């Protein structure tokens, strides 16, 4: 056999045929600065999913889901955990604060969540958020404020410091916790000491923490699996519907977001592959969730922000307060430059447009369609924050529909001018809108196709 023939298959033009078998994974991602209503879209899809996964972030995310009049709050648990027929997965890309996880489960148990521990799988490669990571998160914010006069608006949940430990190879993972506890204890002490050297005011009760961690280890042991093998098996086994719930959003992505006012993980589609250990080939539909206007928590550039009665109206009508932080959100008109940018990175199959009903009272609605810099239109989204602060937004004005849409359940029920608003967004971004949200409940998501 000639050397060359090992590598070429004449029938496929010299390329090995791609293996297109296996279940495809459906992904739901935020397309703005978070708080778009991803939980609701996930909830809609989770009812018919077999496996629901989180792939990045930690309990800095906040998803609210309303079922049978009960409001559940999820931060670390995949919000699909309320589906008793599905398995929920916390992937290797997620950072896990164990007391936070258990406390969240208990809170939701009181509201009627049952048998969650039988339906939860935790990747053994996920990194652990320790209490001192959370303390350091707060101390770093104080330091930033003192040095630069700015803070990045962290949720103080220890997410950034944990990803820092992970990147500097001093982090500890679930698999370490479940293995030799003596070895784990030594590494834990060393990590705590490193942080204490950097932050002299940091107090860590090492023995107290280790006792608790030993207890948590036994509680979660039955839920821990090799995540890569689990996902491989799920994708290549019998037909299954697999859903991935993104946390945070495109403009909070560590690489593509409005740096430094971002989170510390990749909340764009690439984070799904690295955060669960699955090939790009197995990614199916990618749905972007978009609010009918724009909001942002904390500081950082926000080109379409309305510091006027429009912004106040959106804030009060939309109850724009963070689920995780309780902070008032900044509000402004819908920005299509952001949506086009998010689509360049994620390649959305379709959008879910939420909270359309909040715009019901507007006489006129503006939509940001492009940015100008020094009088010239720019086709890209600026990386530099100072540059982004300087862009001039070009708006298109659309007439408001001035009627209550909250009872609409079909496309035909929507007022003509509301339909025009939706079509305008689709045409300008080049992504179809598959769902339109007009209220809090499950029933208030209108499917358009």
UniProtKB/TrEMBL annotation:
Broadest EC class assigned to this enzyme: ligase
Subcellular location: Cytoplasm
Name this protein carries in UniProt: Adenylosuccinate synthetase isozyme 1
Gene that produces this protein: ADSSL1
PROSITE patterns, sorted: ADENYLOSUCCIN_SYN_1, ADENYLOSUCCIN_SYN_2
Organism per entry: Oncorhynchus mykiss
Function: Component of the purine nucleotide cycle (PNC), which interconverts IMP and AMP to regulate the nucleotide levels in various tissues, and which contributes to glycolysis and ammoniagenesis. Catalyzes the first committed step in the biosynthesis of AMP from IMP. Plays an important role in the de novo pathway of purine nucleotide biosynthesis.
The record's free-text note on cofactor binding: Binds 1 Mg(2+) ion per subunit.
Stretch list, region Disordered: 1-22
Signal peptide boundaries: none
Residues engaged in binding substrate: 35, 323-329
């Amino acid at each position: 056999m000639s050397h060359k023939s090992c590598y070429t298959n004449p029938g496929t033009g010299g390329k090995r045929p791609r293996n297109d078998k296996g279940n495809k994974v459906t992904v739901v991602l935020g397309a703005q600065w978070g708080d778009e209503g991803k939980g609701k879209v996930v909830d809609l899809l989770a009812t018919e999913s077999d496996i629901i996964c989180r792939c990045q972030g930690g309990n800095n995310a906040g998803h609210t889901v309303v079922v049978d009049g009960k409001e559940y709050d999820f931060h670390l648990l995949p919000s699909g955990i309320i589906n008793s027929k599905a398995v929920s997965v916390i992937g290797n890309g997620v950072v896990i604060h164990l007391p936070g996880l258990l406390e969240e489960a208990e809170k939701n148990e009181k509201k009627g969540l049952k048998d969650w521990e039988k339906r939860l799988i935790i990747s053994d490669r996920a990194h652990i958020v320790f209490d001192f990571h959370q303390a350091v998160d707060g101390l770093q914010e104080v330091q930033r404020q003192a040095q630069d006069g700015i803070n990045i608006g962290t949720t103080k949940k220890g997410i950034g410091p944990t990803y820092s430990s992970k990147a500097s190879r001093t982090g500890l993972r679930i698999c370490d916790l479940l293995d030799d506890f003596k070895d784990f204890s030594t590494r834990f002490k060393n990590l705590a000491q490193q942080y204490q050297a950097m932050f002299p005011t940091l107090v860590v009760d090492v023995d107290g923490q280790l006792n608790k961690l030993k207890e948590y280890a036994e509680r979660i042991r039955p839920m821990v699996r090799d995540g890569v093998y689990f996902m491989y098996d799920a994708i290549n086994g019998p037909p299954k519907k697999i859903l991935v719930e993104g946390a945070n959003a495109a403009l909070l992505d560590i690489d593509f977001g409005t740096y430094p006012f971002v989170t510390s993980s990749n909340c764009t589609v690439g984070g799904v592959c690295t955060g669960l250990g699955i090939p790009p080939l197995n990614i199916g539909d990618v749905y972007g969730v978009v609010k009918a206007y724009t909001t942002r928590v904390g500081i950082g550039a926000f080109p379409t922000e309305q510091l006027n009665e429009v912004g106040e109206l959106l804030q009060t009508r939309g109850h724009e307060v963070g689920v995780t932080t309780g902070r008032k959100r900044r509000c402004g008109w819908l920005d299509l430059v952001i949506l086009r940018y998010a689509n360049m990175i994620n390649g959305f199959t379709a959008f879910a447009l939420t909270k359309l009903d909040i715009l019901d009272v507007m006489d006129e609605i503006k939509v940001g369609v492009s940015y100008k810099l020094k009088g010239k239109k720019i086709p890209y989204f600026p990386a530099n924050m100072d540059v982004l602060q300087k862009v001039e937004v070009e708006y298109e004005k659309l007439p408001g529909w001035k009627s209550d849409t909250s009872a609409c359940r079909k496309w035909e029920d929507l007022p003509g001018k509301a339909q025009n608003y939706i079509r305008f967004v689709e045409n300008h971004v080049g992504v179809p809108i598959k769902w339109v949200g007009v209220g809090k409940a499950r029933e208030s998501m209108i499917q358009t196709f």
